[in-house]
Design a protein that fits this description.
single chain, about 325 residues, alpha/beta, Rossmann fold, 2 domains, 13 helices, 13 strands
């Protein structure tokens, strides 16, 4: 009888302020590990009045075991993974250390509280390595966009879909995250307004944490522009893959759109997303949303070069790299 590789406790969050990015990324990783025999348990942390609804969490974690809690509760696990916003993440890493848990933290840059291992997509430029050295510990941090978690369904599209824009840009998708507390969806819609006659279809995706007032206003604006509204569409990956142009924030959806070679215009929600997206814009793999006309007026050759650069940056193998790291942490003697 084959011995299970291990058990993983995932401590994460999903709220009306932070959206669904942490949950979705962790769910993708959890399903991958589960297919390899791992036992997975989620604890979705945060105040009850700020968390996403039970239905929204269930929609994302469907088929996975989870609890919604104000604070983490210790459970037997070979590895505990922490993925949440900065303040709560640091607090939760400290809790893991108090509990004596083997802890991996994702997108982590807080050198004064070191977990057992760190993975970040951001360029730390040696910062975290120096922190491990000062602490007198073997360096166990891994950085770079090659650790981006891309859903298998999107990887299947990467293998078969054509680069966009060969016959112009006709199909656009606006997707500004699971919550959109700043109402940037409306700004993105307005940025496409001058180009409406150039586009055959514009689909506006509203996540499960978007408030009712924004939904109502987006529907009103969409009716005047003949844009299509989709609320938490079941085939989001299909929408993304069929788009020529994607207007998104500077988080996980940007990486997904780049991986499948879409033409990407970025409208960040906060300073962290601005900082993260800046490197990709500098590499001309995407542009800022207010410059969307550059894509719509580009030549066919320019669009293809743009999309090719996008697809070359995120290889989509981050899921397997993370799974390998977690397996090594659970079985250090192997």
């Amino acid at each position: 009888m084959r011995t299970p590789p291990g058990s993983l406790l995932i401590l994460t969050e999903g709220s009306v302020r932070t959206g669904t990015g942490h949950l979705r990324r962790c769910a993708t990783l959890a399903r991958h590990l589960q297919s390899q025999g791992w036992e997975i348990t989620f604890q979705v942390l945060g105040k009850a009045d700020q968390r996403l609804s039970q239905d929204a969490i269930q929609h994302i974690l469907n088929g996975l075991k989870w609890q919604a809690l104000a604070q983490p509760v210790p459970l037997p696990a070979n590895v505990t993974m922490v993925d949440m916003t900065a303040f709560r993440q640091k607090e939760t890493v400290a809790w893991c250390q108090d509990q004596g848990l083997v802890c991996l933290a994702l997108d982590y840059q807080q050198a004064d509280m070191l977990p057992d291992a760190v993975v970040t997509l951001k360029d730390l430029s040696g910062h975290m390595h120096e922190a491990f050295m000062r602490a007198g510990r073997a360096s166990s941090y891994h950085e770079g966009v090659e650790y981006a978690v891309i859903r298998p369904s999107l990887m299947a599209q990467r293998a078969r879909c054509l680069l966009p824009g060969q016959n112009g840009v006709s199909n656009a998708v606006i997707t500004i995250g699971g919550a959109d507390p700043g109402g940037l969806t409306l700004e993105a819609m307005n940025l496409l307004r001058p180009w409406r006659n150039r586009l055959d279809q514009v689909t506006v995706v509203l996540g499960p944490g978007v408030n009712d007032a924004l939904i109502q206003q987006a529907r009103l604006e969409a009716a005047g522009l003949d844009f299509k509204i989709e609320r938490s569409p079941p085939d989001f990956d299909g929408l993304l893959g069929s788009a020529d142009l994607v207007l998104c924030n500077g988080g996980g959806t940007m990486l997904e759109a780049l991986c499948i070679g879409r033409l990407v215009a970025v409208l960040p929600q906060n300073a962290a997303e601005i900082a993260f997206a800046t490197g990709f814009c500098h590499e001309k793999a995407c542009i800022w949303a207010h410059e969307v006309g550059k894509i719509l007026e580009a030549t066919k050759q320019e669009r293809l070069e743009f999309a090719s650069r996008a697809a070359s940056i995120v290889d989509g193998n981050g899921l397997e790299r993370l799974a390998t790291l977690i397996t090594q942490m659970a079985n250090p003697e192997n």
